[in-house]
Amino acid sequence: MIKIVESRNDDYLALQELFLQSRRKTFLWTDTSRYKLSDFDESTKNEYILVAFVDEILVGFVSVWLIDNFIHHLYVDEQYHNQSIGSELLNKVIEKVGYPIRLKCDEKNTKALRFYKQKGFIEKEKKAFENGFYLLLELDV
């Protein structure tokens, strides 16, 4: 059974590890060797974080910049993909922040784009960044 709760200090090390491993496995088109555990600290500073547990194991999280209803990160441990954990995290964060909710997704991250579009997100704009292009996606009522 999936349990979604607000993150606690006890979750910190597991979150750092999940963040690092997920990014290394996802962003293969970049130099992932430069990623480090402490990236989580800076990347989620002042963000609201929900975590997903299965059998007391931290298997996913979503972090949101509440001021803008902006999802900054949503990661699920690869071993737990296709088990509705990402959907559960997304639903819970929408309960918390409401609509509209936005996020950016690298256009090369086709698996994530497919997930978000299946959930009803629509593309609002496409912008260049250092590694190519990202899409700004939005979900509204």
Automatic annotation (TrEMBL):
Domain N-acetyltransferase: 2-140
Lineage of the organism: Bacteria, Pseudomonadati, Bacteroidota, Flavobacteriia, Flavobacteriales
Signal peptide feature range: none
Protein name: Putative acetyltransferase
Species: Empedobacter falsenii
Keyword Transferase attached: yes
Coiled coil regions, renumbered to chain: none
GO molecular function: acyltransferase activity, transferring groups other than amino-acyl groups
Keywords: Transferase
SUPFAM superfamilies (alphabetical): Acyl-CoA N-acyltransferases (Nat)
Keyword Transferase among UniProt keywords: yes
One Pfam family, short name: Acetyltransf_1
Xref: InterPro entries: Acyl_CoA_acyltransferase, GNAT_dom
